[in-house]
Amino acid sequence: MAEPPVPIKDLRLLDVKLGQLPTWLASLNYTPRAFLESCKRGHNRFYAKYWEPKRCGITGPAMLITAYVVFSYYLVYDHLKEERWRKYH
């Protein structure tokens, strides 16, 4: 027997078709609590995939260090942009 269809609001983003995207976005909960819960779910999934396994390797720490470097560069970009050598004509 075929499984019953899943409501659009219960689908993951990767399972949503392009035509269903506006309906799926409208069905999301945009409260601060829902945002914090989604951040917590993302953190838990990252931790379970890259930190919990006994042989996780360097992937998890490398991703965190890369994110830190990109974010810190973003914070000081305006200051670095002013220190460039320029040719004055």
Automatic annotation (TrEMBL):
The chain crosses the membrane at residues 58-77. It is a single-pass membrane protein. GO terms for biological process: proton motive force-driven mitochondrial ATP synthesis. GO terms for cellular component: mitochondrial inner membrane; proton-transporting ATP synthase complex. Its main location: mitochondrion. Keywords: Acetylation, ATP synthesis, CF(0), Hydrogen ion transport, Ion transport, Membrane, Mitochondrion, Mitochondrion inner membrane, Phosphoprotein, Transmembrane, Transmembrane helix, Transport. Pfam families: WRW. It is found in: Mitochondrion inner membrane. The keyword Cell inner membrane does not apply. InterPro entries: F1F0-ATPsyn_F_prd. The keyword Transmembrane applies. Belongs to the ATPase F chain family. Subunit f, of the mitochondrial membrane ATP synthase complex (F(1)F(0) ATP synthase or Complex V) that produces ATP from ADP in the presence of a proton gradient across the membrane which is generated by electron transport complexes of the respiratory chain. ATP synthase complex consist of a soluble F(1) head domain - the catalytic core - and a membrane F(1) domain - the membrane proton channel. These two domains are linked by a central stalk rotating inside the F(1) region and a stationary peripheral stalk. PANTHER family: ATP SYNTHASE F CHAIN, MITOCHONDRIAL-RELATED (PTHR13080), ATP SYNTHASE SUBUNIT F, MITOCHONDRIAL (PTHR13080:SF16). Component of the ATP synthase complex composed at least of ATP5F1A/subunit alpha, ATP5F1B/subunit beta, ATP5MC1/subunit c (homooctomer), MT-ATP6/subunit a, MT-ATP8/subunit 8, ATP5ME/subunit e, ATP5MF/subunit f, ATP5MG/subunit g, ATP5MK/subunit k, ATP5MJ/subunit j, ATP5F1C/subunit gamma, ATP5F1D/subunit delta, ATP5F1E/subunit epsilon, ATP5PF/subunit F6, ATP5PB/subunit b, ATP5PD/subunit d, ATP5PO/subunit OSCP. This is ATP synthase F(0) complex subunit f, mitochondrial. It comes from Pseudonaja textilis (Eastern brown snake).
